[in-house]
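Exercise 7.
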Amino acid sequence: MTKTFKYAAVALGALTLASCGGSGGGGGDQAIRAVGSSTVYPFATVVSETFARNYPEFPSPLIESTGTGGGMALFCEGAGPDTPSLANASRRMKLSEFETCLANGVTGVTELQVGLDGIAFASANGGIDMNLTPEIVYKAIAANPYGQEQTAENWSDIDPSLPDLPILVYGPPSTSGTRDALKELVLEVGCEADPAMEAIKEEDETRYEQICTEVRTDGAFVDQGEQDNLIVQKIEGNADAIGVFGYSYLEENIDRVHGLTMNGVEPTYENISSFAYPGARPLYVYVKNDHVDAIAGLREFLATWAESWGVGGPLAQIGLVASPEDVMARNNAAVTELPALTTADFE
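Solution. The predicted structure, written as tokens, is:
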């Protein structure tokens, strides 16, 4: 596609979008479409169900669990009516993704922090139990811990005080925002426990990234896809296995699995809310501003999110941890004001 044709296509997409309708009920029968994080998916589904009950005049939203990375790719493909209006994410949009949006004509994107979650490490009730640290997790599942050959087969190979049981961790795929958060909040922290890593980072950032974030592929870490419920099933069926998923799935399945402590801190609502738990992280929804008054009901759908994410609200009841008051107030305002991201926001 030539540059001229590409820009013409973007302009045509914007014109088609505008023709879908205006404020207050345009967009014909086109449903709101949201793609992205499997962690945000159950929360978005509850918001969608609430919206459908409260606004029966609009089509029910389509919520797709594609993983954060896959969702961002779909969201940033273009601005036309055939593209998603929302991207759900379990980590912040990357600058490279934002630049892709801009290049494809998606020039107005609003970021909403909808709440907090935690990367929970869990095992079956009555199963393996230990106090993890980022360093232990890193040594257990890194492909080449500190640049050395991975030789640990049992947890006791890392520390004699740990169970003399095989390392088996079921976790998220590389396209998942949970995997990105696992890298940033746990693996890199564990990797940086070795002072030598700082020198490698300064000399060769690509090598540092590989050493600190690549996970082993010999069967000790098993990529279980975007279905966190499948990880729950796997660890429930194997008392020696550990699973990695969002805190909401731990709370939802507390009768089947239990959370493992990290640095002696349990993955609980209170500990995630206060960021005392090392795996605490924000969750996001990204909005395509050009769609807000062109896609029927999108403005009302955003308002339904804001009405649902408070302390004691319907999303808290299924595991979402409410954002701090100042953050929530800022995002409540953003739902209506729709401030557009700029490249400066990623500095």
